[in-house]
Design a protein that fits this description.
This protein is α/β, with parallel strands linked by helices and 554 residues long. 38% of the residues lie in helices and 18% in strands. The strands form three sheets. A nine-stranded mixed β-sheet has the order 1-8-9-11-10-14-18-15-16, with helices on both faces. Strands 2-7-6-3-5-4 form a six-stranded mixed β-sheet, sandwiched between helices. Strands 12-13-17 form a three-stranded mixed β-sheet, with helices on one face. A hairpin with a 5-residue loop joins strand 12 and strand 13.
Length: 554
């Protein structure tokens, strides 16, 4: 069955989408119902952000001051400098580690959160980290609201914006906690913003728009294997984009999976016998006003839980695999930023492969021969390489769509390989095919991400990667889906999966020298997405937003 979003979805029908089909009294007693009623039309934010023009206001129980040193504080806020310099006379760590002091007025607290940017390798993330640390210190001291005051460094144009995003990250509460304890759904009641020498109102609007996307991604990516099983993931997305410029199409018919998306169907096979775990394919569509000049087509990996399948994860390596859906979650988050900023001249078509890689008698197994949507035969080498399987037929579908779109750029976003974590640590790895590399996409989006503290490392697709997955001596298959070793024990373990997706979707037919070249970039967020129990990061939402409509963020 295929569902398309309705602009008249009522509250009660939304509740039914979450499986609350009991009596009205039972529904009213549910914690989800209480949470939903309390938060109808929420902005998807930890709290509202308010522009403040008077730094001496007494409307907040704490002021969190983010600045690089006391000299800069003196230029921006003489009264704050006075109390901090007095504290520095008895505490040599004030400029290095910060301080908590009483405001001179006696009303409230002042938290000084110093930023360290003197080294060549320091970047704008120092502002986010200082703001987050300062907000947490204020919360620990008993603050119920806070004014974030930022004295930006000329070195970083977006220091104030990034500071707010850091504060918001510290204020996020997981979806399941908000549902279970709705009376504690916010850490603070309000957050104010004052910025030295800048127009605060515009920063507020941009910060709320970007954070709304990350908030959504955190809700979806951070949900446990049951709360964000595929049907509930789809219901959240359907509700999120109800009555917005993003349309939602949800496919749950196994027969459609088997006919049109056979690689996805293989991964979904074991989970499909459990109704609450059955997979969903979700398409998102946004069309901005005006003449379209570029079309973005991201595919997100949404493995709600990865057991490894028949090649089961052992030795404790299964823990944390509920985060294997962060690729799809972060694509949804990016579409939320499109809703908030409504950029003109942009079209976006997203595809989400949301399913569970379960163990069971219906599991797909190594040695199976599966034919992709594009007609490419592959031999399964490792069922724990399910992400590329789930995404490739959707990539092929969007390839078909892209051929009729304006300036299309295909993308995959996935927590794909452990090798990526070894190669680039906690950063996102981005890899271009020939047409994308010719336009220097990776370099451009890397620079865009740097401005907002959403860093990427550039990897390169080589001929070795294509050779690795081809099966010239296999009479039954064109490709080998994966070798039997973990990616972390395989040379070029985060590059060759992209080559597999290119060949299995026949994107190789649209290279630089073809009649219709198609740009394709792959984002491996295995290291950057955030591990359990840390807050999901939403990477690379900020980088994608800065690349796609950066002029709206200035």
């Amino acid at each position: 069955m295929i569902y398309r979003s309705s602009r008249v979805l009522g509250q009660f029908s939304c509740l039914l989408a979450f499986g609350l089909r009991s009596s009205p009294s039972a529904v009213a007693r549910s914690t989800w119902y209480r949470y939903y009623i309390m938060n109808v039309n929420v902005e998807r934010l930890p709290c509202k952000l308010h522009a403040v023009t008077d730094l001496e206001t007494n409307d907040y129980s704490a002021v969190v001051l983010v600045a690089s040193n006391l000299d800069n504080v003196k230029l921006a806020a003489a009264s704050f400098f006075k109390v901090l310099s007095a504290q520095a006379k008895i505490d040599n760590t004030v400029e290095k580690e910060g301080a908590l002091v009483a405001l001179e007025s006696g009303k409230g607290r002042l938290v000084f959160a110093p930023v360290h940017t003197s080294n060549d390798y320091d970047d704008v993330r120092s502002y986010a980290e200082a703001a987050a640390k300062g907000i947490q210190r204020a919360l620990n001291a008993g603050a119920t609201d806070a004014l974030l005051a930022v004295v930006p460094d000329k070195k970083f144009k977006q220091a104030a914006l990034v500071s707010v995003l850091g504060a918001y990250e510290a204020l996020y509460l997981p979806l399941q906690y908000r549902e279970a304890v709705p009376e504690k759904a916010q850490k603070i009641t309000k957050l104010g913003l004052w910025v030295h020498g800048q127009a605060t109102e515009s920063i507020v609007k941009v910060a709320e728009g970007l954070e709304s996307g990350r908030f959504v991604a955190r809700d979806l990516g951070g949900g446990d294997p049951e709360r964000m099983a595929a049907p509930k993931f789809a219901a959240y997305v359907k509700d999120l984009f109800n009555n917005t410029k993003v349309t939602v199409e949800i496919i749950d018919d196994i027969k459609i999976f088997e006919k049109e998306y056979p690689m996805f169907a293989a991964v979904n096979r074991a989970a499909s016998v459990v109704e609450r775990h059955r997979g969903r394919i979700i398409f998102l569509r946004y069309t901005g006003e005006g003449k379209i000049t570029k079309t973005l087509l991201p595919v997100g990996k949404g493995i709600t839980y990865d057991t490894g399948g028949a090649d089961v994860k052992v030795g404790g390596h299964m823990a944390g695999m509920s985060r294997d859906k962060c690729g799809a979650s972060n694509v949804v988050g990016f579409f939320q930023t499109l809703v908030k900023f409504a950029p003109k001249n942009i079209k976006a078509i997203g595809a989400l492969a949301v399913c569970r890689n379960s163990i069971g008698e219906e599991s797909y197994v190594a040695d199976e021969i599966i034919t992709s949507r594009a007609g490419v035969r592959m031999r399964i080498g490792n069922t724990d390489a399910e992400g590329r399987m789930a995404m490739t037929d959707l990539l092929c579908k969007l390839k078909e769509v892209a051929l009729n779109e304006t300036n299309p750029h295909l993308m995959t976003v996935a927590t794909l390989t452990g090798h990526c974590c070894l190669a680039v640590g906690t950063y996102t790895a981005v890899i271009d095919n020939g047409p994308a590399k010719a336009e220097k996409f990776s370099s451009i989006i890397q620079a865009a991400g740097d401005r907002l503290g959403d860093m990427l490392e550039i990897s390169t697709l080589r001929r070795d990667d294509y050779k690795f997955v081809r099966s010239p001596n296999d009479g039954d298959a064109d490709l080998l889906q994966c070798n039997s070793k973990p990616s972390s024990q395989t040379a070029r373990g985060h590059q060759f999966p992209m080559a597999f997706m290119v060949l299995a979707s026949k994107l190789d037919e649209h290279g630089l020298n073809s009649e219709k070249p198609l740009k394709y970039s792959h984002f491996d967020i295995a290291g950057s997405s955030g591990n359990v129990p840390d807050t999901p990061t939403g990477a690379p939402i900020l980088a994608l937003a800065a690349y796609s409509f950066g002029e709206l963020l200035e």
